[in-house]
Design brief:
By secondary structure, the chain is of the alpha/beta class. It folds into 2 domains: 156 residues, Beta Barrel (Lyase, Ornithine Decarboxylase, Chain A, domain 1); 210 residues, TIM Barrel (Alpha-Beta Barrel). It has 12 helices and 21 strands.
Amino acid sequence: MELKNGNYCIDNIRLIDIAEEFGTPVYVYHGEKIIAQFERLKNAFSGTKVKVKYACKSLNNINILKLLKNAGSGLDAVSIQEVWLGIKAGFKPEEILFTPNCVSFDEIKMGVREGVQINIDNISILEQFGHEYGNSVPVCIRLNPHIMAGGNTKISTGHIDSKFGISIYQLRHVLRVVKSNNILVNGLHMHTGSDILDSGVFLQGADILFDCAKDFPDLEFIDFGSGFKVAYKEGDITTNVEELGKAISSSFNQFCNEYGRTLELWFEPGKFLVSEAGYFLVKTNVIKQTTATVFVGVDSGQNHLIRPMFYDAYHHIVNLSNSSGVNRVYTVVGYICETDTFGWDRKLNEVREGDVLCFRNAGAYGFTMSSNYNARYRPAEVLIYQGKAHLIRKRETMDDILKNQVEVI
């Protein structure tokens, strides 16, 4: 997003014009930025047989899936519904990694029927998988390395109290299950969490996985998950993927030499690919001054962007309608019957009722975590791609709220 002649633009398209054409609230995504992030990550690990599996839970609009598929990405799915979305978008089953958590074995069997790569993260399901399939269907095993990482406990997934993965301290049990059921293990996986600041976390996890891999002779890939940190505000520390790429590539290639053959190196980025490419536009309904605070009340809330309330996440906010106005301090809040505060004490160009505000870094876990709370409609989505703005999801209507309700009274 650039400021040109007082207007915030993407590829010379004014965001204020997007708000006027498609209404607010509306999510806007920059297609070329997503592709650039994908290429940056691939290039960082160019010394290996790297495969990127986009974590579609972060943003699953079918047009975004197609965009990344055409760029050469695979897919990381965490539910059978995401698997079906991926197949609908054109991904081949073998390009999809299916990593559910705490699902029934019936859902695992659905994934097998679709032909996707299964990734199992608990011993009970692994045993059932072995009883059912033996070595006829390859499987990846998700291990918990007991590494505390991530910017918030809700997105830290590799620590000792996490529900994710099989503890590395249960490895001997896993090996017994694998041997007794003749299970074909073709991959090992870990994911320590999101918003990782220290590249050393990946290297620490790599050493653990490499050590575990020695007990699995039929591996085709090792998957390090993701967690690459992007900047949400000026001065944020981010993951240096180029530096990390050199370190991991060197370590991985050395491991492959010791293992006896070259394996594939997998990653599952979500936020890294789409977060900075997303913008959320809202309109100011009211300016409300109390004895202590000046509130900007907008036509959205935690039903559309829950990250600030759920994760204490920071999203930079700009006033698209008055980019040269005097700076004033506001608290930006939503229209939901909850304390849905987007940002406390934010310095913004003077905000007037009717002004359109923009939340930056809104591409990941925005729309996909939205809801119909308070019977509100979910917003529209727009993709800016090849110099044009395309509507890629219609705004919901009352028909969408009612369509699955069954009246019996």
